[in-house]
């Protein structure tokens, strides 16, 4: 009985983690109107999903790629599920690009600088490359659902994907993130967040202080008035850009 309770708690913990990560990604999509592929939320989300997919995985499901169980699993699924087959091809191409870049970087730093920047090849991205690729190709939810529907072939009885309730819930949680559009562009919004209300008030006070440096009873010169108006226009333009 204690073992059954412990297994159930483990499944719930894995599911709660995925729910939290999905919520963060969806909130980022709403507030920023986009999600960058290198977002920290993507990294943590992929790690959480990978933990669920690997939970209770049968040893023989890993096949000969024991060092990359996710790759081995997806390759096996790809034999009978076309979306997974296409994903495997693209993921292997990415791995080949990474290996080529790594080999050339060892030869010389000059050759490394001449190579075009490859997206999503930072260390966190490499670790969860196959899950990330499935997410960006919008097939992660479909592959997980396929694993749920065929769970007895790949998983032990305690696995989260074997559970008749938790498995379908996990697959449904992935539908939202797979429906989003992800960007590789380094936009201004990627580096800056909207200024807070306090910051806007402080900027206004600084601007007002500059404009009131002259005596209130003395009419400012035309050039000073024009300069003040220009500062205010620049301030408004900056606010619009930051928004």
From TrEMBL:
Domain RUN residue range list: 36-190
Pfam families, per the entry: RUN
SUPFAM superfamilies, sorted: RUN domain-like
Signal sequence annotation: none
InterPro entries xrefs: Run_dom (IPR004012), Run_dom_sf (IPR037213)
UniProt-recorded name of the protein: Small G protein signaling modulator 1
Species annotation: Xenoophorus captivus
Gene for this chain: SGSM1_2
């Amino acid at each position: 009985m204690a073992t059954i309770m412990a297994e159930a708690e483990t499944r719930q913990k894995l599911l709660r983690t995925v729910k939290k990560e999905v919520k963060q990604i969806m909130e980022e999509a709403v507030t920023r109107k986009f999600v960058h592929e290198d977002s920290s939320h993507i990294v943590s989300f992929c790690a959480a999903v990978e933990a669920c997919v690997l939970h209770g995985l049968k040893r023989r499901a890993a096949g000969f790629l024991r060092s990359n169980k996710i790759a081995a699993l997806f390759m096996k699924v790809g034999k009978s599920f076309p979306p997974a087959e296409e994903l495997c091809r693209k993921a292997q191409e990415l791995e080949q690009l990474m290996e080529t870049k790594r080999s050339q970087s060892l030869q010389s730093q000059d050759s490394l600088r001449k190579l075009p920047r490859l997206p999503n090849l930072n260390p966190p991205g490499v670790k969860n490359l196959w899950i990330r690729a499935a997410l960006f190709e919008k097939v992660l939810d479909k592959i997980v659902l396929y694993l749920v529907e065929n769970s007895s072939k790949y998983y032990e009885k305690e696995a989260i994907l074997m559970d008749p309730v938790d498995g379908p819930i996990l697959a449904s949680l992935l539908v939202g993130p797979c429906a989003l559009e992800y960007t590789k562009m380094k936009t201004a919004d990627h580096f800056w967040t909207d200024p807070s209300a306090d910051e806007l008030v402080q900027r206004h006070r600084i601007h007002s202080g500059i404009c009131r440096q002259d005596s209130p009873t003395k009419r400012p010169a035309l050039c000073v008035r024009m300069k003040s108006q220009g500062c205010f226009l620049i301030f408004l333009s900056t606010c619009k850009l930051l928004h």
